[in-house]
Amino acid sequence: MNSPATHSTVPSERLLARLEKATSLCVLTGAGISVESGLATFRDPGGLWEEYSPADLANEAAFRRDPQLVQGWYQARLKQALTAEPNEGHLALVELEKFYEPFLLVTQNVDTLHKRAGSINMVELHGNIVDERCTDCSKPPVDQVFSEDGLRCCGFCGGLLRPGVVWFGESLPMDPIERATDAAISSDVFLSVGTSSIVYPAAGLPLLAKQNGAYVVEINVEPSALSYAMDEVVLGPAGDILPVLAAHMRSFNNREELERITNR
Ligand code: APR
Fold it and tell me: pTM higher than 0.70, yes or no?
């Protein structure tokens, strides 16, 4: 029986030591990391799924039933996402990426904040809200036209445009999930940040990492559905906790560098 995860509001010495020793790091993020950029999560009080139902908005049938409602809702979310700025949590992951090879950031978020923060080695498991595509010719819209009733349509074939996100009931694109699976399996440390850990296959990644020997850590303002399976749970906002890990690795690497120079 695994020892229960340690719960604390600060990263443990054990985590910092594992980060120092690690070669490969894999990080999974969810909507919680974008809260400090002003974006709502899905399942928290006041979250998107409290106000709206995924059955009416985030699946193919809903889109066919009421494309106006669905296009309108995603356009509003797109505007919010593009107005939001990356926060300290996103920026800390950009810095942490420099200290590991291999490193992979696996995000469930469609808000493009990680990309805008400067993350390089990353996959968007659920697509993103910026890249639209035509539901008929599947082409990304070169230009778009509006139908008489104001629907956004493909300038090439006139088909309805839909957001480039993965809807409920749809399978994830293969390449991102394959890269995420490989990275979880080969990770020395796996961080699960700002996710309720209930949507699969993303929620399966920390378990896979643990089965393959990684030190698995959850960073969240409250325990998630998978806290029991973690080696460590650090309770606090991602924008507070992740910069602590980045600062630690920065000073550790500076020390290493200094030793290398002085020992020449
Ligand atoms: N820092 C860290 N975690 C936070 C913060 C914060 N500042 N604020 C909230 N959280 C945590 C919440 O405690 C919760 O566990 O973020 C989590 C958000 O959970 P969800 O709303 O369920 O979002 P997520 O896990 O990303 O959802 C997964 O579900 O609806 C689908 O496709 C959608 O990608 C999404 C998937």
Answer: yes
Q: Output the CA torsion 84→85→87→90 (10° steps).
A: 100
- Among 195, 197, 235, which is best to mutate for testing ligand 1, by the most ligand atoms less than 8 A from CB? 195
Residues with CB under 6 A from ligand 1: 30-32, 35-36, 41-44, 47, 108, 126, 194-196, 199, 220-222, 224, 237-238
| Alpha carbon distances (Å) from 121 to 9, 117, 186, 205, 254 | 28, 12, 15, 17, 23
User: Is domain 1-39+85-126+172-264 annotated with CATH 3.40.50.1220?
Assistant: yes
Instruction: Give the whole-number percent of the chain exceeding pLDDT 90.
Output: 80
Write the pLDDT tens digit of every residue in 31-67: 999 999 999 999 988 888 887 888 889 999 999 999 9
Pocket test for ligand 1, best of 9, 35, 125, 222 (most atoms within 8 A of CB): 35
Output the CA 108–ligand 1 centroid distance in Å: 9
* For the chain, domain boundaries: 1-39+85-126+172-264, 41-83+129-165
**H and E: helices and strands count for the chain:** 10, 11
pLDDT for 176 equals: 98
